[in-house]
Every structure is written in structure tokens, then in C-alpha cells.
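S2.1 Query sequence (23S rRNA (Uracil(1939)-C(5))-methyltransferase RlmD)
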Amino acid sequence: MYRKFNQKETKEKDVIITIKRLGINGEGIGYYRKKIIFIPGALPEEVVVAKINKEYPHYIEAELVRIKEKSPDRVAYPKRVDPAIGGLELAHLSYDKQLEFKRDNVLEALKKYHPRGFSKYKVKKTIPAPDAWHYRNKAQYQIERDHGKTKLGLFAPNSHQLYDLPVMPTQSVATQKTERQIKELAERLHVTIADPYRHTDGLKTIVVRQAQATKEIQVTLITVGHKIKNLLELSSEIMKLPNVVSVYQNETDWRNPQVWGNKTEKLAGKNQIIDEILGKQFALSPRAFFQLNPVQTATLYSKALKFLDLTPEDTLIDAYSGVGTLGILAADQVKQVIGIETIGEAVADANHNVELNHLKNANYIQGSVEKVLPELEQNGVPIDALIVDPPRTGLAKRLIKTLLKVKPKTFVYISCNPSTLAQDLVLLSEAYNVRLIENVDMLPQTPRCECVVKLTLR
Ligand SMILES: C[S@@+](CC[C@H](N)C(=O)[O-])C[C@H]1O[C@@H](n2cnc3c(N)ncnc32)[C@H](O)[C@@H]1O
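Output C-alpha cells follow.
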């Protein structure tokens, strides 16, 4: 939480700040010489000593040095974890206050963009996760060799410094254990590790995902380049680890700023792992999106389905459908489901999942929602009910325009970003009433929110 050990003290830049509130990323916010100052790790009402790192025309970035007056909501930070690692931005705040913070984030975004009638929206209390630790079912760790020592872990935010991770307290025990076993195997088999400084080929990232219901584990080895020394031997050894049923290679290159590249190839075992939500089965390929907290996923999806108020005559559009989770869960209640998703592997998984669950009334289409939804309408498909679950960027303006024309009678918006949600509601509230917003805490210890919104035609 405090100053990084290798940073030099520059006393003259240390300032004393009273923290007023938390920012959307969980940082403490105060004021210094009439400018807003962001101090990660500081809490509201605390008086802290901070070191100014960077000053911009409208704000200042600083680092927490010492707490002079402590908040009663401060809790002990997890032991043996470097605070420089991302993903634990709220771990120093009591869990009750984390839940309040997530609700406040939604209220603040509504206040900022003020969609029609926003002050009357019912924004319910955040639903807590039954377990605020060890909930993440997928680990995506980088691997590097540094002065003859292999490091496996996460980068500090906005940095190229890799932290070797003996423990990550939000990650499930099994995924972490498998990650470290793979690291040991890679060392023992002398698998070439990619070098980010010299841009050489090799193993770069190890992804481990576990299905909660079946315990099956899928491993993806992300490599720079295709032919990596001893990768196939590594894959055979990984298959012998407990619960591992599937090993893939995903290939990237140094020009790609994303972690994942475009080519994915199976090295050993099954094509997919199978998970279960609310009694339905879902096969998952390595690239397919799946929520990270399986227990809360069931809560989130139950809310979404309840908010939809479906009837047996409805055609439901599952937009941004991933592996078809929401549409498949709703299929028994409607006449037909049409899903739309850009990633080909996820669409293939979704259609496979339709068969896996013995459904005859659901079909998933590859394409962007902005393009496919107007085409469906033009082809005379009745769009009675709609569920949208977009990425953080929210809905494209072009899509909102189509929705305001098509006007599905019942509509649920699942959002992982209150800011884009509030902006989209400004436009959608021209035709829709916002009945209810409910936050489900999918990612405890982080500032991330996930909310479900019930919209009905005016
Ligand atoms: C937040 S995930 C939701 C997935 C799914 N509803 C679930 O709960 O598992 C968003 C999904 O939208 C897909 N996606 C992103 N942009 C899209 C677009 N313009 N049109 C269709 N799908 C898109 C992503 O590939 C991803 O699978």
C-alpha cells in the first residue's frame, strides 16, 4: 500500500492531504492547491502523507507514504502480497464499505450523466459475494526469465515490472497451484521463455481456467512464435496434472498489444471444458468469455432472467452472447432465442451448448450486434425481448438508434461499467423507463461493478 521500496525519498514533495472520497478506480481523492489529487490506498476521512509523482494541468498523481489519521473502515491488507499488483485495489477497505462504494459508483455515474428521471431510479444495495476471497476461476499469469530465475505472475498496473506471485488471495487455490506446477515443469523441461527485451520467441503467458461444477481444468500456453522448444513435452506433462483435461497453444507476436493472439490450436486432451450454471451445461473453448466468479454468476443471471418477464410467445435476442449462457438459461421460457456474438469460437461453443442442453429453439449467429440486429429486424424477426451484456465500452450509438426504432417491449442491460451504462441510459430513456438497477459483486477487493438494469417501454 505504501511507497515502493526502491523509490527515492524526495521530502520536499511530500504533502499532507485529507481524503474526501474514493475515485472510480478505488483511489483516495483529496485536493492540493485547488487541484484534485489521486492517492491509491488512501481512504475517505484519512489524513495521509503522500508523495507527488506527476502533476498534470487538472490533477495530480501521488503515492501514499504514511497514514497520520486512520479510517475506522480500514482493514489489514493481505499478507505476503505486494500492493503494487493490480486486482486488489480495495483490499484495505472493509467488505461492507466495498459494497457501498460499488452502489455509490452507479449513483455518481447517474448523477454525472443524468438520464431522464434518474433521481427516481431504484438502485438496490449491492449483493455481496458469499466468499470475498479465492473466487477467481481463471488465472492469466505472465512468465519471464530474469537473471537465470523464472518469474511467474502479474505486472504492476501500467508497468513492465513482473511480480513473481507466490499467492494471489482472490485467485482460486487450484488455478494458482496449477500455474506454479506448470512453471516448474517449464523450468525442468527447459522450455524457451519469450524475452520481452530482446523480442525473442518463446512461452509468454500461462492461462489456467477451471470449471466449477466439473472441476475440469483447461490450460492455454500463449507463445510468441509457433515452434517453441519442448512445448509439446510440456503439454504432455501438463495433462498429467490433477483435473487438467485440455491444453491449447495460442500464438501471438510482439506487435500485438493484447495478451492473446489470433491463432489457437489444441495440443492435447478435450476441445472444451464443461461448466454448469443454474442446471444448464456450458462447454468452453479457450477464447470464449465466461464470468470469473461462478457463484455470483448464477446470482447475476437469475436476476437478469427475472427482470426480463418473458412469455412463451416471445422471441428473445441474447446480444453479446459469449458461449450462449443467458439465452440458453432463458430458452425454456420463450418461443425462440437468437444470440449474437463476434468471436467465432464462442459462437461455435454457444451452438454446441444448445445441443448439449437438448434445446431446439435457440440459434447463435456470428457478427456484431450493431450489424446483425437491424438485419434481423429487416428480415421480419419479431424482437420482443432483449438482453444486452456488452464489454466496458457499452452500446454503440448506432445500435441504440436501432433499439429506439425496434423498441423491444422488455429489455435487460447487464453492465460492467457504470459510466458507459449511464451514458447509454441517457439515450435509451427517451423510450424506456428504468425500473430497477441491481449491483452484484462479482469481483470483491476490486473496484469493478456488475449491474443488471430492468427497462420497460414507456
Ligand atoms: C461481457 S461479455 C458477455 C458474454 C455473455 N453474455 C456471458 O455472460 O457470458 C461480452 C461479449 O460480447 C462480445 N462482443 C464484444 N463486442 C461485440 C459486438 N460489437 N457484437 C457482438 N458481440 C460483441 C465479446 O466477445 C464477449 O463475448
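Residues 289-291, 320-322, 325-326, 340-343, 346, 368-370, 389, 391 surround S-adenosylmethionine (CB under 6 Å). The chain is about 25% helix and 30% strand.
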